[in-house]
User: Fold this.
Amino acid sequence: MSGGTDDNRETTRVSTRRAILATAGVAVSTTLTGCQGDGSDGNDSAAEDTEDDGGEPAPLDPPTGTSEDGIDDTAALVDATREALTENGYALEQELVNTADGEQTLGVTQRRRSNLEAERRLLVFDAASETNRLYIENGTQHVQATANGETTTRSNEFQDDFAETHPPEMLDGGESLGGILRTGTYVPSETVRRNGRRLLRFDLDTPDESSVSGTVTDASGTVFVDGESVVHDASRHLEIEDEDGRTVTVDQSFLITQLGDVTVERPEWVESDS
Assistant:
Protein backbone atom coordinates (compact mmCIF):
# COMPACT_ATOMS: atom_id res chain seq x y z
CA MET A 1 0.00 0.00 0.00
CA SER A 2 1.66 3.18 -1.09
CA GLY A 3 -0.57 5.42 1.03
CA GLY A 4 -1.17 5.21 4.76
CA THR A 5 0.60 5.63 8.04
CA ASP A 6 4.15 4.54 8.75
CA ASP A 7 2.66 2.05 11.21
CA ASN A 8 0.64 0.56 8.38
CA ARG A 9 3.54 0.26 5.99
CA GLU A 10 4.44 -2.80 8.02
CA THR A 11 0.95 -4.12 7.42
CA THR A 12 1.06 -4.44 3.67
CA ARG A 13 -0.06 -7.69 2.10
CA VAL A 14 3.29 -9.46 2.56
CA SER A 15 4.71 -7.92 5.74
CA THR A 16 1.48 -8.17 7.69
CA ARG A 17 1.07 -11.82 6.83
CA ARG A 18 4.63 -12.53 7.91
CA ALA A 19 4.33 -10.50 11.10
CA ILE A 20 1.04 -12.01 12.20
CA LEU A 21 1.97 -15.54 11.24
CA ALA A 22 5.24 -15.10 13.08
CA THR A 23 3.29 -14.00 16.13
CA ALA A 24 0.93 -16.94 15.79
CA GLY A 25 3.82 -19.26 15.17
CA VAL A 26 2.47 -20.61 11.88
CA ALA A 27 5.48 -19.71 9.80
CA VAL A 28 8.16 -19.68 12.49
CA SER A 29 7.67 -21.89 15.51
CA THR A 30 3.98 -22.85 15.30
CA THR A 31 3.46 -21.54 18.83
CA LEU A 32 0.20 -19.82 19.54
CA THR A 33 0.09 -16.48 21.32
CA GLY A 34 -2.67 -15.57 23.70
CA CYS A 35 -3.74 -12.88 26.10
CA GLN A 36 -5.72 -12.60 29.28
CA GLY A 37 -6.57 -10.02 31.87
CA ASP A 38 -8.66 -8.68 34.70
CA GLY A 39 -9.34 -5.35 36.30
CA SER A 40 -13.07 -4.98 35.91
CA ASP A 41 -15.84 -3.48 38.01
CA GLY A 42 -17.83 -6.70 37.82
CA ASN A 43 -18.57 -9.11 34.98
CA ASP A 44 -15.54 -10.52 33.16
CA SER A 45 -17.13 -10.09 29.74
CA ALA A 46 -16.92 -7.00 27.52
CA ALA A 47 -20.14 -6.16 25.69
CA GLU A 48 -20.37 -5.64 21.97
CA ASP A 49 -21.80 -2.13 22.29
CA THR A 50 -21.68 0.91 24.56
CA GLU A 51 -24.86 0.19 26.47
CA ASP A 52 -25.37 1.15 30.10
CA ASP A 53 -26.75 -1.55 32.40
CA GLY A 54 -29.63 0.50 33.74
CA GLY A 55 -28.74 4.10 34.55
CA GLU A 56 -25.76 6.28 33.90
CA PRO A 57 -22.45 5.00 35.30
CA ALA A 58 -20.48 7.14 37.72
CA PRO A 59 -17.72 9.08 35.94
CA LEU A 60 -14.43 7.19 35.84
CA ASP A 61 -11.30 9.08 36.81
CA PRO A 62 -8.68 9.11 34.03
CA PRO A 63 -6.34 6.15 34.67
CA THR A 64 -2.57 6.14 34.26
CA GLY A 65 -1.62 7.00 30.69
CA THR A 66 -4.59 9.34 30.34
CA SER A 67 -5.75 12.65 31.76
CA GLU A 68 -8.59 15.14 31.55
CA ASP A 69 -7.05 16.20 28.24
CA GLY A 70 -6.95 12.76 26.63
CA ILE A 71 -4.53 9.88 26.06
CA ASP A 72 -1.08 11.05 27.14
CA ASP A 73 1.02 7.88 27.21
CA THR A 74 0.18 5.14 24.72
CA ALA A 75 2.99 2.93 26.02
CA ALA A 76 1.41 2.91 29.50
CA LEU A 77 -1.89 1.68 28.05
CA VAL A 78 -0.18 -1.00 25.98
CA ASP A 79 1.83 -2.17 29.00
CA ALA A 80 -1.23 -2.34 31.25
CA THR A 81 -3.17 -4.23 28.60
CA ARG A 82 -0.30 -6.65 28.08
CA GLU A 83 -0.06 -7.29 31.82
CA ALA A 84 -3.78 -8.01 32.07
CA LEU A 85 -3.63 -10.34 29.09
CA THR A 86 -0.61 -12.09 30.56
CA GLU A 87 -2.11 -12.83 33.95
CA ASN A 88 -5.64 -13.98 33.08
CA GLY A 89 -7.81 -15.90 30.63
CA TYR A 90 -8.95 -14.04 27.56
CA ALA A 91 -10.81 -13.96 24.27
CA LEU A 92 -9.38 -11.46 21.80
CA GLU A 93 -10.36 -10.40 18.29
CA GLN A 94 -8.32 -8.25 15.91
CA GLU A 95 -9.10 -7.18 12.37
CA LEU A 96 -7.23 -5.19 9.74
CA VAL A 97 -8.64 -4.27 6.33
CA ASN A 98 -6.93 -2.04 3.78
CA THR A 99 -8.31 -0.89 0.44
CA ALA A 100 -6.99 1.15 -2.47
CA ASP A 101 -9.55 2.85 -4.73
CA GLY A 102 -12.20 0.53 -3.34
CA GLU A 103 -10.27 -2.67 -3.96
CA GLN A 104 -9.25 -4.65 -0.91
CA THR A 105 -5.49 -5.03 -0.68
CA LEU A 106 -5.39 -6.66 2.75
CA GLY A 107 -7.92 -8.38 4.95
CA VAL A 108 -6.84 -10.21 8.09
CA THR A 109 -8.87 -11.36 11.09
CA GLN A 110 -7.43 -13.03 14.19
CA ARG A 111 -9.45 -14.64 16.94
CA ARG A 112 -7.77 -15.97 20.05
CA ARG A 113 -8.95 -17.74 23.19
CA SER A 114 -6.56 -18.80 25.93
CA ASN A 115 -6.89 -20.29 29.40
CA LEU A 116 -3.68 -20.05 31.39
CA GLU A 117 -4.71 -22.42 34.17
CA ALA A 118 -5.95 -25.16 31.82
CA GLU A 119 -3.12 -24.50 29.35
CA ARG A 120 -5.49 -24.48 26.40
CA ARG A 121 -5.28 -22.03 23.57
CA LEU A 122 -6.95 -21.53 20.20
CA LEU A 123 -6.05 -19.20 17.35
CA VAL A 124 -7.97 -18.73 14.13
CA PHE A 125 -6.17 -16.65 11.50
CA ASP A 126 -8.28 -15.71 8.45
CA ALA A 127 -6.99 -14.01 5.33
CA ALA A 128 -8.26 -13.83 1.77
CA SER A 129 -6.04 -16.66 0.55
CA GLU A 130 -5.71 -18.85 3.64
CA THR A 131 -7.09 -19.88 7.01
CA ASN A 132 -4.86 -21.23 9.77
CA ARG A 133 -6.03 -22.73 13.06
CA LEU A 134 -3.82 -23.62 16.01
CA TYR A 135 -4.98 -25.41 19.14
CA ILE A 136 -2.93 -26.41 22.20
CA GLU A 137 -4.07 -28.91 24.83
CA ASN A 138 -2.29 -31.35 27.15
CA GLY A 139 1.14 -30.48 25.80
CA THR A 140 0.15 -31.15 22.19
CA GLN A 141 -0.17 -28.59 19.42
CA HIS A 142 -2.63 -29.15 16.60
CA VAL A 143 -2.46 -27.16 13.38
CA GLN A 144 -4.97 -27.00 10.54
CA ALA A 145 -4.06 -24.99 7.44
CA THR A 146 -6.31 -24.29 4.45
CA ALA A 147 -4.95 -22.69 1.26
CA ASN A 148 -5.71 -23.05 -2.43
CA GLY A 149 -8.67 -25.29 -1.65
CA GLU A 150 -6.56 -27.81 0.26
CA THR A 151 -6.62 -28.48 3.99
CA THR A 152 -3.87 -30.17 5.96
CA THR A 153 -3.82 -31.10 9.63
CA ARG A 154 -0.91 -32.09 11.82
CA SER A 155 -0.07 -32.51 15.49
CA ASN A 156 3.18 -32.30 17.40
CA GLU A 157 4.49 -31.94 20.92
CA PHE A 158 4.29 -28.42 22.32
CA GLN A 159 7.72 -27.96 23.87
CA ASP A 160 7.55 -24.31 24.97
CA ASP A 161 6.50 -23.12 28.42
CA PHE A 162 2.81 -22.31 28.05
CA ALA A 163 2.99 -19.42 30.52
CA GLU A 164 5.76 -17.76 28.52
CA THR A 165 3.99 -18.06 25.18
CA HIS A 166 0.58 -17.14 26.61
CA PRO A 167 0.98 -13.31 26.41
CA PRO A 168 0.38 -11.65 23.02
CA GLU A 169 3.39 -10.54 21.05
CA MET A 170 3.59 -7.36 18.98
CA LEU A 171 0.84 -5.69 21.00
CA ASP A 172 2.59 -2.35 20.47
CA GLY A 173 2.99 -2.90 16.73
CA GLY A 174 1.23 -1.02 13.98
CA GLU A 175 -0.88 -4.06 13.13
CA SER A 176 -2.17 -4.29 16.72
CA LEU A 177 -3.23 -2.04 19.59
CA GLY A 178 -0.20 0.26 19.38
CA GLY A 179 -1.03 1.30 15.83
CA ILE A 180 -4.54 2.33 16.80
CA LEU A 181 -3.38 4.31 19.83
CA ARG A 182 -0.74 6.17 17.81
CA THR A 183 -3.21 7.26 15.11
CA GLY A 184 -3.37 10.75 16.57
CA THR A 185 -4.76 12.78 19.45
CA TYR A 186 -7.56 11.20 21.45
CA VAL A 187 -9.78 13.26 23.76
CA PRO A 188 -12.07 11.97 26.56
CA SER A 189 -15.73 11.56 25.71
CA GLU A 190 -17.77 9.79 28.40
CA THR A 191 -17.88 6.97 30.91
CA VAL A 192 -19.87 3.95 29.74
CA ARG A 193 -20.78 0.64 31.31
CA ARG A 194 -20.39 -2.69 29.59
CA ASN A 195 -21.75 -5.67 31.47
CA GLY A 196 -20.80 -4.25 34.85
CA ARG A 197 -17.45 -2.75 33.88
CA ARG A 198 -16.98 1.00 33.71
CA LEU A 199 -14.90 2.19 30.78
CA LEU A 200 -13.71 5.66 29.84
CA ARG A 201 -14.24 6.40 26.15
CA PHE A 202 -11.76 8.43 24.12
CA ASP A 203 -12.47 9.68 20.59
CA LEU A 204 -9.94 10.54 17.91
CA ASP A 205 -9.73 14.31 17.62
CA THR A 206 -6.82 14.95 15.27
CA PRO A 207 -4.95 12.36 13.19
CA ASP A 208 -1.16 12.45 13.19
CA GLU A 209 -0.34 13.25 9.56
CA SER A 210 3.41 13.24 10.19
CA SER A 211 3.37 9.47 9.75
CA VAL A 212 1.14 9.49 6.67
CA SER A 213 2.26 9.13 3.06
CA GLY A 214 -0.34 11.44 1.61
CA THR A 215 -3.19 13.48 3.04
CA VAL A 216 -5.77 12.28 5.55
CA THR A 217 -9.20 13.15 4.19
CA ASP A 218 -11.27 11.43 6.88
CA ALA A 219 -10.43 9.87 10.23
CA SER A 220 -12.24 8.46 13.24
CA GLY A 221 -11.33 6.28 16.17
CA THR A 222 -12.47 5.21 19.63
CA VAL A 223 -10.64 3.71 22.59
CA PHE A 224 -12.29 2.28 25.71
CA VAL A 225 -10.07 2.08 28.82
CA ASP A 226 -10.87 0.74 32.30
CA GLY A 227 -9.68 2.12 35.63
CA GLU A 228 -6.52 0.00 35.50
CA SER A 229 -5.46 1.45 32.10
CA VAL A 230 -6.45 -1.74 30.27
CA VAL A 231 -7.76 -1.11 26.75
CA HIS A 232 -10.80 -3.34 26.14
CA ASP A 233 -11.85 -2.01 22.77
CA ALA A 234 -10.11 0.17 20.19
CA SER A 235 -10.74 0.92 16.54
CA ARG A 236 -9.78 3.36 13.82
CA HIS A 237 -10.80 4.33 10.31
CA LEU A 238 -8.57 6.34 8.01
CA GLU A 239 -9.14 7.60 4.49
CA ILE A 240 -5.98 8.83 2.81
CA GLU A 241 -5.27 10.34 -0.57
CA ASP A 242 -1.86 8.91 -1.31
CA GLU A 243 0.95 10.40 -3.37
CA ASP A 244 -0.35 8.63 -6.47
CA GLY A 245 -3.79 10.15 -6.09
CA ARG A 246 -5.41 6.91 -4.91
CA THR A 247 -7.90 6.76 -2.06
CA VAL A 248 -6.56 4.38 0.54
CA THR A 249 -8.54 3.24 3.59
CA VAL A 250 -7.38 1.59 6.78
CA ASP A 251 -9.91 -0.08 9.09
CA GLN A 252 -8.52 -1.69 12.20
CA SER A 253 -9.99 -3.02 15.44
CA PHE A 254 -8.85 -4.57 18.71
CA LEU A 255 -11.45 -6.10 21.03
CA ILE A 256 -11.14 -8.10 24.23
CA THR A 257 -14.47 -9.95 24.28
CA GLN A 258 -13.76 -11.81 27.52
CA LEU A 259 -11.31 -11.31 30.34
CA GLY A 260 -10.90 -13.66 33.27
CA ASP A 261 -12.32 -17.20 33.38
CA VAL A 262 -12.44 -18.15 29.70
CA THR A 263 -13.38 -21.58 28.38
CA VAL A 264 -11.43 -22.92 25.41
CA GLU A 265 -13.33 -25.75 23.73
CA ARG A 266 -11.62 -28.46 21.72
CA PRO A 267 -12.31 -27.78 17.99
CA GLU A 268 -14.17 -30.40 15.97
CA TRP A 269 -11.22 -30.84 13.62
CA VAL A 270 -8.96 -32.03 16.45
CA GLU A 271 -9.13 -35.82 16.81
CA SER A 272 -10.59 -36.90 20.14
CA ASP A 273 -7.92 -39.51 20.82
CA SER A 274 -5.00 -37.09 20.35
Remarks:
- The helical segments are 6-9, 13-24, 74-87, 162-165, 177-181.
